Amino acid sequence: MNNVALNTTQETGWDMTIGAAAVPGSRFIPVFDPVTGKPFAQAPDATVAETDQAIAAAAAAFPAWAALPWAARAEKIRSFGLAIREENSALARLLCREQGKPLEKAVSEIGAGLAYLNAYCDMVLEPAVLKETATQRIEQHHRPLGVVGAITAWNYPLLLAIWKIAPALVAGNTVVVKPAPSTPLATLALGRIAARVLPPGVVNVIAGGTETGERLTSHPAVRKITFTGSTETGKRIMANASARLKRLTLELGGNDAGIVLDDADPRAMAADIFWAKFSNCGQVCAALKRLYVHRSIFAPLCDALAAFAAGVKIGPGLTAGVQIGPMQNRAQRDRMEATVEQAVAAGARIIYQSEIPSSEGYFFPITLLADAPEDAEVVRGETFGPVLAIMPYDDIEDAIARANDTEYGLGGSVWSPDVARATALAERLEAGSVWVNQHPSMDPHVPFGGIKSSGLGVEGGLRGLEEFTYLQIVNVKK
Ligand code: NAD
């Protein structure tokens, strides 16, 4: 790969970064363009030996990196951020090409990643004196863990990678990053940028699928896994990590409910509710996935959502003005088709379905489904795509009970102009984040994480940073 500026049109030569070296890999997997459904590049598929080399490079780099003063690490990570910014437009095109999202959204994804990176560089985990007497002094320190394995999903490849790399590095760890096999290219490019500005081995990026991931999560030298992906894979990772009791942060699936109260104005809220679900073509962990609407405004809200949806432009991410691209991969697109078919067979009504610009690729219509039964997959499972289930309720207690009747607990929201009433109800939703009149809303200084099958631990804020450290107590008898 070119070391001065990224070439985003190449088919091959998407090297991994192991130590400072660009490693082409020894076997390959095709990367598909979600707009056409055709392969457009080849990415490496790291073998066990290559994965081990990356872990060894991270382990070798750890002592010197951990020994740097906190501020010196932060300064180098800021330089990494500046180097990413310089490649912003090439990275955004690459992200758009492999992920399918509109170019403008790819630019915002990188911008959001950089906001997190810089916020982490401003955070410090200060040592504290817990006790000081004439005979004793007890201090608490945050120490880095060592090599961190970072595994990401395909919906926000660069944002998720930066969410993991930045706090791991600030806290003094080194990392091996593995993106999803369907969206490896932008993250591989990130590895080459890191190699330009950071000491060798501090950031290593490999690509591959389940075999690579399993090696990374079970290798004895990896002390912590930070993972974003499905609940099923999260459970598997937890099992693999148990042999060595590795630390874990697991950001997993969600089935967030939104509740619209009887005093809400359907037309005023339609746009925000629409984007709460359909941003990134509905492929968002903390998207609004089930909408419970008071029966008195059910029909007007369905109409307002359908009217709004009709004005949204779907198309290839590189086409100007497009707001929603194709889904990222065929398996997920096919899952949406099956989910809608099953819901309709179970009695749900399609109240709106958009046109799609092409039958090629992984486009799926924006779909609004009313009255799906609670046991339909579209209500019970995680609908990770552009399909929204909208159900009426009569009694707010029943709506809250249905919202909480799920194995997931990532986010939830309540919508009403009466903010105090909505807030009191939102606090009763069993989820790691609850929002009022928005869904989701993220901030680099605010922890984000799920309960139940939605995960373990948090990302963001000082609490997110702490997850990349262990507490060391220094207890001195004077
Ligand atoms: P996935 O679990 O299939 O894959 C995620 C990553 O795990 C990929 O890199 C994959 O190669 C790797 N992997 C697969 N099997 C593995 C194994 N046995 N050991 C180690 N690694 C393995 O998830 P996905 O389909 O890529 O992503 C969609 C899911 O991610 C959705 O459920 C979504 O809700 C979730 N997600 C959660 C958050 C969050 O912050 N909670 C954010 C984004 C996405």
Description:
With about 475 residues, the chain is of the alpha/beta class. The protein folds into two domains: about 15-250 and about 455-475, Aldehyde Dehydrogenase, Chain A, domain 1; about 255-445, Aldehyde Dehydrogenase, Chain A, domain 2, CATH 3.40.309.10. Helices cover about 40% and strands about 20% of the residues. The protein has 15 helices and 20 strands. It has helices at about 50-65, 70-85, 90-100, 105-120, 155-170, 185-195, 210-220, 230-240, 265-280, 295-310, 330-345, 375-380, 395-405, 420-425, 460-465, and strands at about 15-20, 20-25, 30-35, 40-45, 130, 135-145, 145-150, 175-180, 205, 220-230, 245-250, 255-260, 290-295, 350-355, 365-370, 385-395, 410-415, 435, 455, 470-475. A seven-stranded mixed beta sheet has the order 14-15-16-13-12-17-18, sandwiched between helices. It has a six-stranded mixed beta sheet with strand order 9-8-7-10-11-19, sandwiched between helices. A three-stranded antiparallel beta sheet has the order 5-6-20, with no helix packed on it. A hairpin with a 3-residue loop joins strand 5 and strand 6. It is globular, with a radius of gyration of 23 Å. The chain starts with 15 loop residues before the first strand and ends with a strand. The mean pLDDT is about 95. Nicotinamide-adenine-dinucleotide binds near residues 151, 152, 228, 233 and 236.
